[in-house]
Structures are given as C-alpha cells and as structure tokens.
Design brief:
Strand content: 15-25%
Radius of gyration: 19 Å
Strand order of the largest sheet: 1-2-3
Number of helices: 2
Helix content: 25-40%
Number of domains: 1
Largest sheet: 3 strands, antiparallel
Protein name: DUF6788 domain-containing protein
C-alpha cells in the first residue's frame, strides 16, 4: 500500500472530497458502507420502475414464493457482517421485501 493518499475521482465535488478528508477511518468505512447500500437501493428502484413492454409474458421463477409478485428482483442485504438474499418489489410508494436465504448457504 502506498504512503500517498488516494487520488479522488475527478467527477467528485471538491466539498465532498474535503468533507471525507476530515473523517476518521471508522467514519469513512461507515460512509463507504452507506454509499454502497444507497447505490444498490437506487439501482434496484430503477430496475423495479422499468416497465416491461405490454403483451410480453414474464415467466415466474420456480423459487419465487406465491406471495411475491413476478416483477420482484433479488437484492443482497448485509446484516451483522452476514449477507442475505431478499426478494424486493415496489407497491405504490413503498419498497416491499421478503427474505429468500443466505448468500453463503453455510451461514
């Protein structure tokens, strides 16, 4: 690992870089974890909001529970340093989710 600090992405606003440079390593890890979760959330919302063309039939996955709609997508959530799969879908303004199972079946 280099003794020099990393170079921030050129498209990152200066005020964000300055704010990050003031944080402790613990806070930086918290910010990194939050940023990753927020990015996943926004990507998931985009996928959920994309409409499937009319008239196209989507096959229902075999492992999809009866109470989960076909439009649901799978996402990964990290809880207490363990990763789990969840089905997620949008109902109006709310995001609904249902537990699917651990990412690592040995957990």
């Amino acid at each position: 690992m280099s003794d020099e600090p990393p170079t921030p992405p050129t498209n990152l606003p200066t005020e964000v870089v300055n704010a990050l440079n003031e944080l402790s390593p613990t806070r930086l890890r918290d910010v990194a974890r939050y940023a990753e979760e927020l990015a996943e959330h926004k990507e998931r919302e985009t996928r959920i909001e994309e409409n499937q063309p009319e008239g196209e039939f989507e096959e229902r996955p075999e492992d999809l529970p009866d109470d989960v709609p076909t439009k649901a997508t799978i996402t990964i959530k990290e809880i207490n340093d363990n990763r789990y799969y969840y089905w997620q879908w949008r109902e109006g303004d709310k995001i609904k989710s249902k537990y699917k199972g651990p990412v690592n079946p040995n957990e």
